[in-house]
Amino acid sequence: SIDTFYISNPILGEYVALPKPKIEKQVFAVAYGFGFSLATGQYKVLRIVQKRVRGRPTPPLAHFIQNRRVRFVLLEVGSGTWRNVGDAPYSLCGRFCDITLNGALHWTDDDHTNFEFLYSFDIGEEKVRPIPLPPEFDIRNFWFWVRLGVLGNCLCIFDNFWFPHLDIWSMKEYGVTESWTKVRILKT
């Protein structure tokens, strides 16, 4: 079992142990993210806890995803205390990849019945938000092949479904649906 988590700065050779969060029951998955609040200048650790809803049988996967509750717990580095910052207004079942851009953590939602698909957690405001997909992007067929990243300080979707091509969708103006631009790269 893992008893202690650390934040490390390998360049300086420094590290700090994080206080242990409250251990909850009926947990399906836990993910962590690390970010910086542009508003307060504070580093924060986000803990995303996906919990099973008690008292319900385990149905097929699509229904199982909907029978989860997602809680956000936050630690301001140096405070020594984890605090609950709320539940997600929708079920999130994602590949949390800790992409940080514009003071927010970003991830994709593996529940491909939910067509929002991209989410961000603003470290300063401590709120989760869906991010609009490109209007022409149909996630229902491609969710497994999609990865999220940052390229040229723009949020990007990397779509490798159409092998040997790599489609890159780049959000040129953060948060603006109409700013998504598609680039296709032919692999060699």
The residue-averaged pLDDT reads 80
Strand order of the largest sheet: 3-4-5-6
Q: Whole-Å distance between the termini?
A: 44 Å
How big is the Rg?
Answer: 18 Å
What portion of the residues fall into strands of 2 or more residues?
Answer: over 45%
How many helical elements?
2
Approximate shape: globular
Order of helices and strands: EEEEHEEEEEEHEEEE
Give the helix proportion (percent range): under 10%
Unreliable stretches (pLDDT < 50, length at least 5) are 60-64
Give a short account of the largest sheet.
4 strands, antiparallel
Number of domains: 2
Give the class from helix and strand content and strand pairing: mainly beta
The total beta strand count reads 14
Organism: Davidia involucrata
InterPro entries: F-box-assoc_dom_typ1, F-box-assoc_interact_dom, SCF_F-box_component
Protein name: F-box associated beta-propeller type 1 domain-containing protein
Domain F-box associated beta-propeller type: 5-183
Give an account of the 3D structure.
The chain is built from 2 helices and 14 strands, in the order ββββαββββββαββββ. It is mainly beta. A 4-stranded antiparallel β-sheet has the order 3-4-5-6. A 4-stranded antiparallel β-sheet has the order 7-8-9-10, with no helix packed on it. Strand 3 and strand 4 form a beta hairpin. The protein is globular, with a radius of gyration of 18 Å.
